[in-house]
Design a protein that fits this description.
Its EC number is 4.3.1.17. This protein is an alpha+beta fold. Helix content is 50%, strand content 10%. The protein is built from 19 helices and 9 strands.
Length: 454
């Protein structure tokens, strides 16, 4: 049963990767909180913290800023309130250490505290991190965490999942079950999703709407920043930002039929380039895919002039698709390749557009299914471990595919669609399982091998 909050799916935090920055930051913060419960004797003996990274966290962690995010979490920083400029300054000096307070004890953490392990680790998830507290070389305590995409984390040994203890008035695990609730209740999709959200989050209708408005505004702030900022993105690729140039081009061609697509591309690139620069973005459903939904919602607000209530309802429709993928497959690039990130975002965007245009659940399902279907098998192969090539342009392409999926689903009878959303999500999961790990965030194959040409 899906009991994830909309506000767990859409998170505000620093880029460039929710799996590599937001998730590890949250895990490190949790680790420090747990250390405060140790006995005085253990705390007295403690003198070091060691962080062991496995899977994609090891292979591309430096490019994604995983080490900086972990230091920030150990220092008590939280994703939504993190200053991205301060975050990017961490670990710049190889000789500098940072004071991590554990009770009354100060433990220094620096570059030497990190171990980017290249060995295979027996773990149920691709992105694994093990944090250890030691004293005189002896292990005092350790915790193992898994970053499972979109900033979601799991701690090894947790036997109870708080989300599974929640109850909702309209429980569903599949699109067919969601559609059955709509048919039986006679309620609009937004009302069903709002009822579940209020039950899960404990927020009132007013509070849910206010938070949705805040999320949309945070997305649009990222777009506006990206449209202003010029120059080169951080990292060894030296990739120059394109969004401001595209935006000016779109404005100069406002009477051209192409301007619509150029505007959409500019908006998506703007948010995605902000993410690549480590700026504050909204996971939608991940940071790597944080240009698709922001670009589409910015277009919907400023070109289609949809009302606030329409945008909110569209966000809920998008969230429902994200929930279904997360629950029945995965939104993690380390598990599904890029189809888990951009593919899901494109499906969510297609659902958003279709709902905002006033179409029903059958058309929404068809649009989302088309969005995923045409991303099946897409690899996650970032050059140099940076969320830049091909990630930034893939956000724009994902949004364009979302728009086309909306057009295809709304131009005919949804009943003519032969493949259901539930079926394509099953295919997506199987495809991710069969895909070589080299094509899932490790930068060991695909376009990542073109690094020498950059």
């Amino acid at each position: 049963m899906i009991t994830t909050s909309v506000f767990d799916l859409f998170k505000i935090g620093p880029g460039p990767s929710s799996s590599h920055t937001i998730g590890p930051m949250k895990a490190a913060f949790d680790f420090v909180q747990r250390l405060t419960r140790l006995s005085p004797d253990q705390l007295t003996r403690a003198d070091a913290i060691h962080i062991h990274l496995y899977g994609s966290l090891s292979a591309t962690g430096k490019g994604h800023g995983t080490d900086r995010a972990i230091v920030a979490g150990l220092l008590g920083w939280q994703p939504e309130t993190t200053d991205p400029d301060a975050l990017n300054l961490l670990l710049r000096d190889a000789d500098m250490t940072y004071p991590v307070q554990v009770g009354t004890k100060i433990i220094p953490v620096g570059p030497a505290s990190f171990h980017f392990e290249r060995v295979r680790y027996d773990s149920p998830y691709a992105n694994t991190m093990v944090l250890k507290l030691t004293g005189n070389g002896d292990l005092l305590t350790s915790e193992e965490y898994y970053s499972i995409g979109g900033g979601f984390i799991i701690r090894k040994g947790d036997t109870t999942d708080a989300s599974q203890q929640r109850t909702v008035p309209y429980p569903y695990s599949t699109m067919n079950e969601l559609k059955a609730h709509l048919s039986k209740s006679g309620l609009p999709l937004a009302d069903v999703l709002l009822a579940n959200e209020m039950a899960v989050s404990g927020k009132s209708l007013r509070e849910v709407n206010l938070r949705l408005d805040q999320l949309i505004e945070a997305m649009h702030k990222a777009v506006r920043r990206g449209l202003r900022h010029r120059g080169t993105l951080p990292g060894t690729i030296k990739l120059r930002r394109k969004a401001p140039v595209l935006f000016q081009q779109a404005r100069s061609l406002s009477q051209s039929a192409d301007s619509f697509l150029i505007f959409l591309n500019a908006y998506c690139l703007a948010a995605s380039e902000e993410n690549a620069a480590g700026g504050i973005v909204v996971t939608a459903p991940t940071s790597g895919a944080s240009g698709v939904i922001p670009g589409l919602t910015y277009l919907a607000k400023n070109h289609f002039h949809y009302s606030k209530s329409t945008l909110r309802e569209g966000m809920l429709a998008a969230a429902a698709i994200g929930f279904l993928v997360k629950h029945n497959a995965s939104i993690s690039g380390a598990e599904m390749g890029c189809m888990g990130e951009i593919g899901t975002a494109s499906a969510m965007g297609a659902a958003f557009l279709t709902h905002c245009a006033g179409h029903g659940i059958d058309a929404i399902e068809s649009a989302a299914e088309i969005g995923i279907e045409h991303h099946l098998g897409m690899t996650c192969d970032p050059i140099g471990g940076y969320v830049q090539i091909p990630c930034i342009e893939r956000n724009a392409m994902g949004a364009v595919k979302a728009y086309n999926a909306f057009l295809l689903a709304s131009s005919g009878s949804p009943g003519m669609q032969k493949i259901s959303l539930d079926a394509v999500i099953k295919v997506m999961k199987a495809t991710g399982r069969d895909m070589s790990t080299k094509y899932k965030e490790t930068s060991e194959a695909g376009l990542a091998l073109s690094a020498t040409e950059c």
